[in-house]
Amino acid sequence: LDIYYITHHLCHAANGFYLSPYKKSAILTADSAGEDDSANFLVGNKNEIKLLKKIKIPHSTGSFYSTFTEFFGYKPESDEWKVMALSAYGSKNNKYYKVIKKMVNLQPDGSFKLDQTYFKQHIHTLPNFYTDDFLKLLGKARKKNDKFTKKDFEIASAMQQVFEDICSHMIKSLYRTTKLNNLVLSGGSFMNSVFNGKVNKLTPFKN
């Protein structure tokens, strides 16, 4: 009996690329975490997939999103789709956008870092994904059965905007590296993303 160990994000990449119509494509995977990574930049060419680089945990798009899922009184790593729906009721570029954007530091190489002042998902011995400093910035967390307020809608909308900015930043970097117009996105984070336009025309993120 032969046993093969396949990494989490390579499985995501293979599932996306080999089921796509492309013979060659850039591939980006992103979710909460694999073994020790949260995102992979890859290229698929016929029956081969080459890894270009990884983003390591705790810097994770999934962790970022799940922290807000819990903040809104939902189950993290499960109810993110509810938060995405919630974000549709808020306005773009509202006052919380700049506040939440400060939680993320985009890197020149296409990666990003989450300010660990606000996130603690990876510390399994501590309760909650968010920190006290997170609550100081955004206020008291919503309880499960509380009525939604305009503030909730605005925070959800701003979070969604920053989240998609992070994803756009990674995609633009991958395009600059590969120059491939074909793109495969795979992993749980991309279930919560909406992009319009070509890869090389995505709106840039500015700190």
Concise account of the structure shown:
This protein has helices at residues 8-17, 61-71, 80-87, 95-101, 132-138, 150-178; strands at residues 24-30, 37-45, 48-56, 104-106, 112-114, 183-186.
Series of secondary-structure elements, N-terminal to C-terminal: HEEEHHHEEHHE
Low-confidence stretches: 196-207
Largest sheet: 4 strands, mixed
For the biggest β-sheet, the strand order reads 3-2-1-6
List the helices and strands and how they pair.
Layout lengths: L7 H10 L6 E7 L6 E9 L2 E9 L4 H11 L8 H8 L7 H7 L2 E3 L5 E3 L17 H7 L11 H29 L4 E4 L21
Parallel strand pairs: 1-6
Antiparallel strand pairs: 1-2, 2-3, 4-5
Helix pairs in contact: 2-6, 3-6, 4-6
Structure commentary:
This protein has 6 helices and 6 strands. The chain starts with 7 loop residues before the first helix and ends in a 21-residue tail after the last strand. A hairpin with a 5-residue loop joins strand 4 and strand 5 (112-114). It has 207 residues and is of the alpha+beta class. Helix 2 runs antiparallel to helix 6 (150-178), helix 3 (80-87) crosses helix 6 (150-178) and helix 4 packs across helix 6. Strands 3-2-1-6 form a 4-stranded mixed sheet. A two-stranded antiparallel sheet has the order 4-5. The longest helix is centred in the last third of the chain and has 29 residues, at 150-178.
Features:
disordered C terminus, 207 residues, globular, four-stranded mixed β-sheet, two-stranded antiparallel ribbon, alpha+beta, 17% strand, 6 strands, 35% helix
